[in-house]
Amino acid sequence: MGEVRTMLRPEELMAEGLRRYDADDRAGFRALHAHDVVYREPALGIEAHGAEAMCEVVFARKTAFPGLRAEPLRRFAAGDLVCQELVWHARHDGPLTLPGGRLVAPTGREMHTPACLVIRVRDGLVVEMNHYWDAMGLLAALGALEAPVPALAT
């Protein structure tokens, strides 16, 4: 199956990806990404290779946060790169599995997590996505931090 190149400019591709994700349109979201896309989430040490693997990672969030939606803030593009600041909003209504297998039971708590997405586009499709977000802030909001985090020495 060949990929279908979009006619969207890179910044439009970012906006459309967020719209499709918010709408739970997995197939539509997948169609905006190259088959060999690389997805990285440094906060959790995640790196997924390929569109299906990326979709598994990003749509798994909706198990713990079924109403997960993005509030786009500032966006800018330069050549084949797009940077999008946003806030993720949701209520923790499902089990959340953390790296290492630790399970956080549903808390019913609201979360508002700042994030930044950086994508690289080639031939009208996303080929690279880096997702930076406040993991410590999310865990604190859910009451899931096991111990206080020591201050960094300066």
Rounded to an integer in angstroms, the radius of gyration calculated over CA atoms is 16 Å
| CATH class descriptor | Alpha Beta
Percent helix, as a range, is: 25-40%
Quaternary structure of the protein: single chain
How far apart are the first and last residues' alpha carbons, in Å?
54 Å
State the CATH architecture.
Roll
Give, in order, the helices and strands.
Answer: HHEEHEEEEEEH
CATH fold name: Nuclear Transport Factor 2, Chain: A
Largest sheet: 6 strands, mixed
The spatial strand order of the largest sheet comes to: 2-1-8-7-4-3
Strand content: 35-45%
- Kindly name the structural category: alpha+beta
Q: How many individual β-strands?
A: 8
Mean pLDDT over the residues: 91
Number of helices: 4
Overall 3D shape:
globular
Catalogue the unreliable spans.
none
Q: What's the number of structural domains? A: 1
Notable traits:
154 residues, alpha+beta, 6-stranded mixed sheet, Nuclear Transport Factor 2, Chain: A, two-stranded antiparallel sheet, 39% strand, 4 helices
